[in-house]
Every structure is written in structure tokens, then in C-alpha cells.
Design brief:
By secondary structure, the protein is mainly β. It has strands at residues 2-7, 10-12, 18-26, 32-39, 45-51, 58-60, 68-73, 78-83, 92-100, 116-117, 121-125.
Length: 127
């Protein structure tokens, strides 16, 4: 089990950029696939991006492709989400989550596999 803490949210103009950071503590970070989800008001939490334990593979929701980049640093127990060309529809509460994985290169997209969650960080895109 890992404790997950997000940071880096805030307000940004359309077309702007933000980097969300996620730090973990507890169990061995490199044993976990990591992901970023977001939740819009009144809607279910949705997967935005995920990265394998070794960082070699990643996956993005279609609307995030080409704009968002997920990365991780196993030496620092951190995961980041670089978000560029932000749009008003990206406004949401963003969550970092961890899923224990037996395979270094596995991509995990099933929400129920993510057992450790942060409290979320708000991103607001508005002029």
C-alpha cells in the first residue's frame, strides 16, 4: 500500500499549461503502475493517463493524446502529468492513483485495479 499526495493544480487560461505532481510513500513505488484520473462535476471518475512500473509504456484517453504527458521517476517516487493546450472541458478534480502490478511493463486501465488514491487537486481552465 502507498500513500498518494497530489499537487500542482490551479487556475489557467485556455491554451495554457500545468504540471501535476504525485508523490508517494510507504510501499516500494516501482512495484506500482501509476495513473491520473479526473472527475467532472456530476460524472464518474475517468482515466486520463497511465504508466507502467518501469515507465516504458503509457496509455492516454483519446482527448489527452498529444496534449498530456505522463512520466515517473522511480528514484524519487513521483509521477507527473504535464498538461498542455488546456481547454475549459479539462476543468475537473484530478486524482493520482496506484495499482500494484506484477509486471514491469503492464498497462493497467481498469479503475478497480487502482487501490491507493490521493485526495485530488483541482484544475480550472477558464478565461
Amino acid at each position: 500500500q502507498v500513500k498518494v499526495v497530489e499537487s500542482g493544480g490551479g487556475w489557467v487560461n485556455p491554451g495554457g499549461s500545468l504540471t501535476l505532481s504525485c508523490t508517494t510513500s510507504g510501499d516500494t513505488f516501482s512495484s506500482y503502475a501509476m495513473a491520473w484520473f479526473r472527475q467532472l462535476p456530476g460524472k464518474d471518475r475517468e482515466l486520463i493517463a497511465t504508466i507502467s512500473r518501469d515507465g516504458a509504456r503509457d496509455y492516454y484517453k483519446q482527448s489527452a493524446k498529444g496534449r498530456f504527458t505522463i512520466s515517473r521517476d522511480n528514484a524519487k517516487d513521483t509521477t507527473n502529468l504535464q498538461m498542455n493546450d488546456l481547454r475549459p472541458e479539462d476543468t475537473a478534480l484530478y486524482y493520482c492513483a496506484a495499482a500494484f502490478s506484477g509486471l514491469e511493463t503492464a498497462i493497467i486501465t481498469a479503475r478497480q485495479r487502482y487501490t491507493d488514491w490521493g485526495q485530488g487537486t483541482q484544475v480550472t481552465v477558464s478565461s
